[in-house]
Amino acid sequence: MTTAISLPTTAAQDNPYALSHLDVLEAEAVHIFREVAGEFENPVILFSGGKDSIVMLHLALKAFAPASVPFALLHVDTGHNFPEVLAYRDRTVAEHGLRLHVASVQEFIDNGRLRERPDGTRNPLQTVPLLDAIETGRFDAVFGGGRRDEEKARAKERVFSLRDEFGAWDPRRQRPELWSLYNGRHAVGEHVRVFPLSNWTELDVWQYIEREKIELPEIYYAHERDVFARNGMWLTAGDWGGPKEGETVERRLVRYRTVGDMSCTGAVDSDADTIDAVIAEIAASRLTERGATRADDKMSEAAMEDRKREGYF
Amino acid sequence: MTSTTHPDAAAAAELAATSLLRFATAGSVDDGKSTLVGRLLHDSKSVLADQLEAVEHASRKRGQEAPDLALLTDGLRAEREQGITIDVAYRYFATPRRRFILADTPGHVQYTRNMVTGASTAELAVVLVDARNGVVEQTRRHAAVAALLRVPHVVLAVNKMDLVDYAEPVFAAIAEEFGAYAASLGVKDVTAIPISALAGDNVVEPSANMDWYGGPTLLEHLETVPVGSDPSEEPARFPVQFVIRPQSAEHRDYRGYAGQLASGVLRTGDQVTVLPAGITTTVAGLDVLGEERDTAWAPQSVTVRLAEDIDISRGDLIAAGPAPEPTQDVVATVAHLNERPLRVGDKVLLKHTTRTVRAIVKDIPYAISVDTLEQVPSPGSLNVNDLGRVVLRTAEPLALDDYRSNRRTGSFLLIDQADGTTLTAGMAGEAF
User: Fold this and answer.
1) Which of B224, B252, B277 is the C-terminal boundary of a domain?
2) Domain A20-203+304-310: homologous superfamily in CATH
3) What pairing do the DSSP bridges indicate for beta strands A72-77 and B347-352?
4) pLDDT bracket for residue B41 (50, 70, 90)
5) Nearest by CB to B411, which of A176, A181, A279?
6) How far apart are CA B414 and CA B420, in angstroms?
7) Is the CB of residue B249 less than 8 Å away from at least one CB of chain A?
8) Within 13 Å and on the Cβ side, how many CA atoms surround A260?
9) Which residue of B has its CA nearest to A170?
10) Which residue ranges does the record assign to the Tr-type G domain (chain B) (predicted)?
11) Positive or negative: CA dihedral B357, B359, B365, B367
12) What pLDDT was estimated at residue B39?
C-alpha cells in the first residue's frame, strides 16, 4: 500500500538496454517457435512463398541456429500460383535443406473431391486440401503467417488457436491467453494453429525484411505485367480464367502487396522497385493490404470469420 | 527516439527504430470505450480508407448517420449483431514516436476474464469513466484488475466532459477519488486526463474547451510514458525452452539452451544457478539468434551456453542474482476464467514459464470481492470471473518468483488435465 511515486524518466537514447519494436516482435516470435518445438510432436510451417510465410521461415531459422529448423513446410498449391513464387519456394527449400509437403487443389479437383467455383477463384477451395494434409501428415501444430492487423476477425484470434477434429475455429470458445503462457494442449485429432506474427503489422513485416535483407519473390517489386481490371483490381492474365469477354488486357507497371494466387490476388499500380520505395509506399497508403488486393475478403462483412470457422488459414 | 518529430514528417525511416507500448483499455458498457479506441485509431490516421468505408456502410445499414467508430473494433459477427464487445481485440497503430499494441477489453460484469487477459501483457491501462457518473462499481473493478495484474501505469480517462460543460471541478473530484483508491491498491503511477472521445477533446488534439487542463492529451501521454523496466536493476531469469544440439560436423559439440530472458541481464562469465536442481555454473557464451554476443537482456530471445556439462532440459530456470527457493507449496492470488468452478481437492495441471506440473488445490482460504476487495472466507470453490486466494501443492518443485517482483516468472495457469481447458490465472504471492 504505497502512494504515488514518480517514476524514473530515463530517455531511451541513454538506455543501453533499449530494444526497438522490431527487436521485441522478433524476440516474441522466436519465443513462440521455441514453445512449439518444446511442446509438440509434429509441427509444420504453412509456406506459401508470400512475404509473411517467408518472414516466418526466417524467424524459425534464427530461432534454432546453429541447428536446422525442426519443422517441415506445407504449401497449399491452388494450381494458380505465380511461377515466380513457386520457383522461389523450391529455391528456398533446397537452400536450407527443408522438407516440403504440397497439398494440391488441382489434384482434388481432378479426382472429384472439389468442384471448381463458377467465378474461377480457388482461394476458398484451399481449406479441404489443407485439412486433409494436416490429417494425413498428423501435424499437431500448424504455423500460419496470419497477423491480427489484417482483418477484424483475425484481431480476435489467439496466438495458439485450437482447432477441433473438423479443423474448425470457434471464436466464442477460445482459451484466454495471458502473459506469454501459451496453452497448446489438445486431444488426439485436434490441432493447434500457431501465429507467431500475430502482433506484427504490414509495415513491421516490411521493415523487418529490410533490416534482415530477406530476399522476396520479385513480384513484390514494381515490374511490367499484362493485366486486366476485375472488381476494381488488376489481375494477371493467364490460363486460370482471365480475361473474359469484355475485359481488356493492358501492360502496366505494378507490384503485389500480398501473394495469394493469380485468381484472387490483385496487383497495385506502383513504381516501387526497391524495398525502401515499398516501405515509403506502404507508410503513405490509404488502403489496407487486404482491402487493396484481396477479392476473397470483399465478399461480406464476415467473410474471413466464416472461412476461419471452416478451417481456413 | 527524439521528441521533436513532427507527425507530418512520418517518413518510413523515422518509423524504423521506435519503441513499442502494449496497453489495455477498460470501461463500462456505455462509457464510450469503443468510441475512444475508434477516435485514437482514426485521429492517429491508423484507420485506412477501406476500413472507414466499410464502417460508414455498416453504420448506414443500421440507420446511423455518423460512422459508428465502435464498428472498427467489433470483429465478430455476434458482436456486431448484438452491438457489444465479447472478446479481447488487439489493435495496432503507430505514430512517429511509438508503436502501439492495444488490448481492447470488454467492460461487462461477466467479462473480468477478458480484462485480466488484456492487462496481463499491458504496461499501461486506460480506465474510462463517464464524467456524469464518476467512479462507479465497475471503475473500482477495473482499477483492481490493473492493480492485481501489476500494470505499471494507469490512466484515468474522464470521458464525456462535453456533457458536464467541460467543468473542472467535476473532473478534479473524480480524479481525486480515483487516485486515492488506486493508491490504496498499490498502483504507483496514475494520470488523469479529461476527454471527450466523441468530440475529440484531449484524445489526440488538445481541447479548446478545457483551458484549465495543462496536461498532455491521451495520445501524448501514451507516446511518452516510459516503457519496460531497467533490466540492470533486476535479477536475471531465463526459463529454458528448448535444448539446441545441431549434431552437425561443423557444430559437433554445440549445446545451447534456448529461451527468452524474463528479466535482467546475462553476461558471459556470469555465475548462474540452474533451478530447481540448484546447480551453480558459469555462462560460457551467449548467442543472440545466431550471433555471438557477450551481453543479453530481457526480453531478448537468446541461446545460453554453459561452462559445465549439466543435465538441463525444458522447464529448468537459469537464474542469476538472488534466486527463488524452489517449492512444491504455492500460495497465490488467482482469477478464475472458466465456467467450470475451481474446487478444493481439484487435480489440475499448473503451467509456470516453460514447466508444466501436476498440482492439487489444497485450500481456497478466501474469495476476494473485486468491487469492495472484501475477503469472503472459505468459499469452497471459485466461479468464473471470481478472484481468490489459493493454496496449491505441486508434484514437482517450481522456481517461482513473487508476481510483484516479476510478472513473467511469478505467473502461472491452471489447466484442466482432461481436456486442456485454461481454467485459472495465478499470481504468486500477495494480491494488493
Assistant:
1) B224
2) HUPs (3.40.50.620)
3) unpaired
4) confident
5) A181
6) 10
7) no
8) 23
9) B76
10) 18-232
11) positive
12) 84
